[in-house]
Write a structure and sequence with these properties.
Rossmann fold; 8 helices; alpha/beta; rod-shaped; five-stranded parallel beta sheet; two-stranded antiparallel sheet
Length: 246
């Protein structure tokens, strides 16, 4: 049951904290809130959560430092930590590896994607119980600086998988946005509302007060094209000698 899962939300924005708490509670999770890293550590010491979901940019103590302190504590290092981030810089990945984060979720997040990440973490936590964790150390030169990464192999894989899923999710959202934009542009080109038209010559007045032939106006305001011909009535009027009554 999700009611047995205790999730600690660390978020300095009251609006975003309440929104995330509501989402989690709607799906049966027990959720509590801390407004910064220092407050979160107090709550963790009082009641160990199953998962920590933390924003990164916060006063007092940011998400990276909070994650680092959790992972350095023997009593709490097994708590999975999800960091909510904009991922605007490549260095964010290095910082996530360095502090021991288990997952990244980009903001603004999709509700279903967030819930799927939580389920992923819970499922893998069960599978990995009793497994031997091996740490590895490697020095890398990135963005003009040296970084020494000492992380559990599974933690590195989890973080990289989360990055991959975030890219897929962002691409899906971008494709959806492009489809909606295309539909909106098509709608804009569709003639709607009242169109002023001369009762005699049938010219149409545009928004600037100029009068145009019907076909000119429609071509400029839609994707319609015209194929010109002559109807029987006009043929009889214009070419009476060639018109034959049927």
């Amino acid at each position: 049951m999700n009611n047995d899962i205790k999730i600690l939300i660390v978020e300095d924005s009251p609006t975003q904290a309440v929104q995330l708490k509501y989402i989690l509670e709607q799906h049966g999770y027990h959720a509590s809130v801390a407004k910064n890293g220092e407050e979160a550590l107090v709550l963790i010491n009082n009641r160990k959560p199953t998962i920590v979901i933390s924003d990164i940019v916060m006063p007092e103590m940011d998400g990276y430092e909070l994650c680092r302190q959790i992972k350095e504590d023997e009593n709490f290092k097994d708590i999975p930590v999800i960091l909510l981030t904009q991922l605007s810089e490549p260095e964010d990945i290095i910082k996530g590896l360095d502090c021991g984060a288990d997952n990244f979720i980009t903001k603004p997040y999709d509700e279903e994607f967030l819930l799927s990440r939580i389920q992923y973490i819970l499922a893998n936590s069960e599978l990995r119980k009793g497994s031997i964790h091996t740490e590895m150390g490697i020095e890398i030169f990135f963005a003009g600086q040296k970084h020494f990464i000492s992380s559990d192999r599974m933690q590195i894989l989890d973080l990289l998988f989360s990055m991959f899923y975030n890219v897929i999710q962002n691409n899906r959202e971008l494709e959806q946005a492009n489809r909606e934009l295309k539909e909106a542009l098509e709608t804009v080109k569709t003639l709607e509302g009242f169109i002023p038209i001369c009762a005699n010559c049938k010219k149409i007045r545009d928004d600037e007060g100029y009068w145009h032939q019907v076909e000119t106006y429609i071509q400029e305001h839609s994707e319609a094209e015209f194929s010109h011909g002559i109807c029987p009535e006009c043929t009889k009027k214009l070419y009476p000698d060639f018109y034959e009554e049927k």
